[in-house]
Structure formats: C-alpha cells, structure tokens
Amino acid sequence: MITKKEFEPGKQYYYSDFYDKSYSIIKALEITKTLKGHPAGIFYFEAETIDNSNIDNKVFHAIGSIHSYSNSFIYNSIDDLRAGSENYKKVQIALVEKLYRGK
Question: What angle do CA 58, 3, 94 make, to 5 degrees?
C-alpha cells in the first residue's frame, strides 16, 4: 500500500484487491480526501485507468476513464503488489483463525 508521502500526481501505480494475478495499472491525478486519524493512513484519490489487460474475468473500468481509489490496494510495483498480497493473506488467515479458535 502506498503512503501519502509516496503519492505523486502523474505517476503510474498498480491496483489490485484480487492479489497479484489480477491487477490494473492506473495513473494518479489528485488526492480528494484524507481520513484524519485513521491508523493505516487511508486517503482517496482520482486516477485514470491506463491498462486493465491483467484483470482476470472481471469487467473493469474502461481505458482512459477516471475513478476514485483508496490507497488500500495501491502499489508502486508488481513486487510491492506481490508482497502486499502475501501480507494480506496472512492477516486474513490470522483473523479467521482467531474467530474460529475464539482467541
């Protein structure tokens, strides 16, 4: 996940909440909202879809269209996306284990 300090208008980022097998490339435009006091530093920004050819079996935003994103699933590179995906899987597994084990 990128931070607010890393955000650069015009820079291309990788978006995926479906892990590294399905992702889109977007070009950042401007930050539109910051959730003040959020422990993860969540913010929202507008971005243009540059490439959605790696989206797996999903209808996605048309090339050139502009949409709002949060930084939750935005990465600087494919390597960052893969590392983020692995970390996200571990967090989700820990939550499920905690839920079912009652800890």
Answer: 65
Domain ranges of the chain: 12-101
SS (H, E, C) the chain: CCCCCCCCCCCEEEECCCCCCCEEEEEEEEEEEECCCCCCCCEEEEEEEEEEEECCCCCCCCCCCEEEEEHHHEECCHHHHHHHHHHHHHHHHHHHHHHHHCC
The span from the CA of 31 to the CA of 25, in Å, is 17
Tokens of 66: 């502009």
For the chain (103 residues), the mean pLDDT of every run of 10, in chain order, is: 93 84 92 84 94 80 92 89 71 71 65
Q: Show the tokens assigned to 47.
A: 């971005």
The letter for the amino acid at 64 is G
CA distance 4 to 92: 24
